[in-house]
Amino acid sequence: MKNNFEKLCFKIYRSIDPVFLEILIPLIDFSRKLNSKPPIPKKEKLAKIDYPQFSDKVIMLHGVSVGEVMSLENLIKKIKSDFKDYQLVVTTGTFTGQELAKKKYGELADFITYFPLDAYKTVEKFLKAVSPSVILIAETELWPNFSYCAKKMNIPLYIINGRISDKSYPEYLKIKGFLGLVLDCFEGIFVQSEIDKNRFIALGANPNTCEISKNLKFEIEKKDCNIDLKTNEKIFIAGSTHKGEDEIVIEVYKKLKEEDKNLKMIIAPRHLTRVDEVVKLIEKHNFKYGLRTKNDTFANNDIIVLDTLGELSKIYSIVNLAFIGGSFNKTGGHNPLEALIYKKPVISGPSIKNFRDIYSILEREKSAFVVKNKDEFYKIARKLLQDDEFYKETAQNCESCFNSQQGALDFITEKLKGVLCKK
Q: Do residues 135 and 416 touch, judged by C-beta distance below 8 A?
């Protein structure tokens, strides 16, 4: 009886008319405007744009927002390298995701657009225009009409880098019968961990096609390091800092340096237009500083300001401890894995929405620390810098955590080859 009810709900959902959604958009836009958000890209979302003429070989990748779009970087490069006969279409669900996709993949993807609104006629129009050979959905985008339409059109549909958060899982369980009908439309679900696999199966995914692939976001490599800033002293780095964070960082450094006069620091402002502002803050606290562009070193300086482009990920290799910026304001944090890959313990402020899933793994494995305020920041930094045993254990946690999450890129590529060979 319950199963019949859920099937009826699924059928009713499929009857949603795009005209109804089109009427709602102005109301939603009004609400978004009040919250300083951009309007919904109506034409793209309703598939009312002129699509290019695609070949009969198209791979579609979808990442809803910034985190998912960033996680696809190495997979996109791999696809362009290994599947040269295929065109690549990238879709996103949010404005920030779309901006990032066009910035990062504008020269790699053949077409970048928005994921369609989940009305059956809209989805059908979109899929007929793009005609993908396979669709890869990053993480957890379970759109009923899109999934059903893809299955009906015999387009292989997969979840990659799948995950279900602790927060979402209890809510999903309340509608697991309905979600089971959606999950039945997927040819395969490739997830980050055993926990995610068990959760997808509990929601109705096929145990035979739900597999652990590990985590695409950990598919980064060490950079060649030819840095001349090395010193025998300990180095504390503040990477990708934003306005308001440099004050916190410098004040924490000042307290740490009172206890270890040899401690050095590197500050890397996220935006180079802020270098002069950062320098004034350093001068205000009477620290000796140098600039990377002038090839200054720690020989006669307490702080080096990294005022160059493209060096930060290398610099992490020579430090002892890393603070990741964008986390004491509303930015949502930056990528902690650039430091973690070199076994460097990471400290972050509380604003980590862009990398929340990664930090949940790092905190669980005790390789990163998310602090609420400046005092907590100082206390954990002090412990890491002064307690050698604690530091050694945390660095080892960084290495084991990173290694345990790698392998997703090769896994997904091999699966993709198998799917496309059947086409």
A: no
